[in-house]
Amino acid sequence: MELEKIDLDKFYLILHPRPAYVIGSGKFGEKVNFMAASWVTPMGEEPPLVCVAIGKGSLTNELIREYRQFSVNVLPIDRVNELYTVGTVSGREMDKTKILKAVEGDELTVPIVEDAIAVLECELWDKVESNDVTLFIGQVVNAKANPKYFNQKTGWNIRDNPVPLHNWGKGFHRVGQFIMAKTLEKHETK
Fold it and tell me: What kind and span of H or E run contains 82?
């Protein structure tokens, strides 16, 4: 089968669907903003680091720079409308705490989503600039998750399909099947 050329301004869709998160920025009790982001990934374990790519013109970018902290919040798939909304409207135009209630983090003054099913609280560790995006690297200082959905030994309980996967625009997926991989023997590989 021949591969079809993809426009470079849409290259990232090849890497989707990806989990969609809510990034909390600012400082609880002062300035608070939430935005959706799927460009989030772990970066290291010692120290525990996570990266999030945020557009340079966004309020979230401004608040992470100012307060040097952010949170990564996991909402369940049944909150996809709120997730989508905070990702498409600027915090300069709308108080997003009217959509998602903010509470203060346990370790930092970072805002977190009150009913998130998992949360990472992060202190800004470093940043990398591109033309249009800043890759913020945060050191995770607190991690917590709802045990109904997440277990440290087995990860996410996929049977309950809690984590929304962003495909493109308004399009999201639920996880449908768990498959345990096996290591192939030499004669099974190409």
Answer: helix 80-88
**pTM for the predicted model, two decimal places:** 0.90
Query: Rg of the chain's alpha carbons, rounded to an integer?
Result: 18
Q: Give 45-100 pLDDT, tens digit per residue.
A: 999 999 999 999 999 999 999 999 999 999 998 899 999 999 999 999 999 999 99
Can you spell out the DSSP letters for 45-78? ETTEEEEEEEETTSHHHHHHHHH-EEEEEEPPGG
The distance of Cα 180 from the centroid of its chain, to the nearest Å, equals: 24
Measured CA to CA in angstroms, residue 36 lies from 1, 7, 169, 174 at distances of 36, 24, 12, 17
End-to-end CA distance of the chain: 17
Task: Output the average pLDDT for the chain.
Answer: 91
Handedness of CA 127, 103, 88, 150 (dihedral sign): positive
Q: Is 149 helix (H, G, I), strand (E, B) or coil?
A: coil
Query: What's the chain's length in residues?
Result: 190
Which residue in 139, 112, 118, 149 sits closest to 45, CA to CA? 139
